[in-house]
Amino acid sequence: MFDTSVYENPLLTRYASREMAENFSDDKKFRLWRRCWIALAEAEKELGLNITDAQIAEMKQYADDINYEDAKKFESEVRHDVMAHVKAFGKQAKSAMPIIHLGATSCFVTDNAEVMIIDDALDMVLTKLVNVMDKLKKFALRYKDLPTLGFTHLQPAQLTTVGKRATLWLSDLLMDYVSLKNLKDTVKLRGVKGTTGTQASFLDLFNGDGEKVQELERRVVRKLGYEKVYGVTGQTYPRKFDYNVLCVLSQIAQSAYRFSNDIRLLQHMKEVEEPFEKHQIGSSAMAYKRNPMRSERVGSLARYVLSLPINAAVTASTQWFERTLDDSANKRIVIAQAFLSVDAILNLYLNISENLVVYDKVIKKHIDAELPFMATENIMMECVKAGGNRQELHERIRVLSMEASKNVKAEGKENNLIDLIKADEMFAPVRDKLDNILDAKNFIGRSPEQVVKFISEEIDPVLEQYKDRLGESGEVRV
């Protein structure tokens, strides 16, 4: 039950999934801190420091049993969250108190845990991203042959197909997938670096044995489930990593934003519609309305995510020497909320893409209104083949096109260009061919083949890697 008397973050109460919210919870963070302390103690013992199995066993006993009230009390006294949790952990694991956090700085737990949390969040995003790609793939294949008006400058242009347009959305997501995968493949922990990154405290613990210090870091990182570690750091992991993370999240938001805008425009034209539930209300005053609420929400959240990389860029730019603490409060907000936003965006994207409604008769009506103008070149060429004069035909079509255009724009009537052409003796040789010439499928080029080729060659290999993760649906909470 949320406390309605104070502000609650709508990302938690309305939009993001429970899974992503739990990933950025204090509980997960503090459990990871204890994992880091246990891994450090184990590795230090293995390399000869005076740490006992009993101490480590006692630490493990309380690894997930965090005494929050004690931690809160200690933090109110020492004004330092890490030391408060060291004391709280030591209050439980009494025999281990002398060796908890031995040789480490606060960023040993905060930064290593932060990277692991981000890595887990990236994996959650990856799963939802490939599921959206799978939904769009199925949609594109289903409608690969359905002609529709193309638009450039938001003006009617040559025909494409509904499925081919969907591959444009899919292509954006493929680029995002590549960026996300590259980022995940290069995730590194801060490792065991000490207060300013020199490992001086650990060198002292091991009596100047640098090889043991290096081995300590390798062992700790492996115990935490990783192999890669930054070769050099100051007190923190490089804040440029946060910038890279937010840039990838921004790319995903950009793609979703573009998709949502297209759906909103298509819904305005009544060609394609996002799902609208039986009891859903579009407007409190206008009961007939079917507003594209989901797509609008995608755009709204995406706009926020797009604004965040500059924040991380400023933080990375202002890290004085080995570090400054003006990143801390900022990071608590920006990183988590960026992921919660993208999680919500992808939930919506999943829901929309698997429930799109296509109105093919409306699409055909719009094609019929514009295709006569687009078909004039084809009509003219057929007349030339029958012995007509290209220049005279061109002028006659121009005149008839202007008349038809006036009929549409000034009179508000249907496009009657084809009727005008049929009635004109200059075009008599092609009257019997006009229906075939005007078949919309003659104007879609290689759209169906492009859809099949793109999906089979570029999308399917990606989806095959994650076949065990496919099948998710998107939940719209409110």
Automatic annotation (TrEMBL):
<comment type="pathway">
    <text>Purine metabolism; AMP biosynthesis via de novo pathway; AMP from IMP: step 2/2.</text>
</comment>
<keyword id="KW-0456">Lyase</keyword>
<dbReference type="InterPro" id="IPR004769">
    <property type="entry name" value="Pur_lyase"/>
</dbReference>
<dbReference type="GO" id="GO:0005829">
    <property type="term" value="C:cytosol"/>
</dbReference>
<comment type="pathway">
    <text>Purine metabolism; IMP biosynthesis via de novo pathway; 5-amino-1-(5-phospho-D-ribosyl)imidazole-4-carboxamide from 5-amino-1-(5-phospho-D-ribosyl)imidazole-4-carboxylate: step 2/2.</text>
</comment>
<comment type="subunit">
    <text>Homotetramer. Residues from neighboring subunits contribute catalytic and substrate-binding residues to each active site.</text>
</comment>
<keyword id="KW-0658">Purine biosynthesis</keyword>
<dbReference type="Pfam" id="PF00206">
    <property type="entry name" value="Lyase_1"/>
</dbReference>
<dbReference type="GO" id="GO:0004018">
    <property type="term" value="F:N6-(1,2-dicarboxyethyl)AMP AMP-lyase (fumarate-forming) activity"/>
</dbReference>
<comment type="similarity">
    <text>Belongs to the lyase 1 family. Adenylosuccinate lyase subfamily.</text>
</comment>
<dbReference type="InterPro" id="IPR008948">
    <property type="entry name" value="L-Aspartase-like"/>
</dbReference>
<dbReference type="GO" id="GO:0044208">
    <property type="term" value="P:'de novo' AMP biosynthetic process"/>
</dbReference>
<protein>
    <recommendedName>
        <fullName>Adenylosuccinate lyase</fullName>
        <ecNumber>4.3.2.2</ecNumber>
    </recommendedName>
</protein>
<feature type="domain" description="Adenylosuccinate lyase C-terminal">
    <location>
        <begin position="371"/>
        <end position="455"/>
    </location>
</feature>
<dbReference type="InterPro" id="IPR020557">
    <property type="entry name" value="Fumarate_lyase_CS"/>
</dbReference>
<dbReference type="GO" id="GO:0008652">
    <property type="term" value="P:amino acid biosynthetic process"/>
</dbReference>
<dbReference type="InterPro" id="IPR019468">
    <property type="entry name" value="AdenyloSucc_lyase_C"/>
</dbReference>
<dbReference type="InterPro" id="IPR000362">
    <property type="entry name" value="Fumarate_lyase_fam"/>
</dbReference>
<dbReference type="InterPro" id="IPR022761">
    <property type="entry name" value="Fumarate_lyase_N"/>
</dbReference>
<keyword id="KW-0028">Amino-acid biosynthesis</keyword>
<dbReference type="GO" id="GO:0070626">
    <property type="term" value="F:(S)-2-(5-amino-1-(5-phospho-D-ribosyl)imidazole-4-carboxamido) succinate lyase (fumarate-forming) activity"/>
</dbReference>
<dbReference type="Pfam" id="PF10397">
    <property type="entry name" value="ADSL_C"/>
</dbReference>
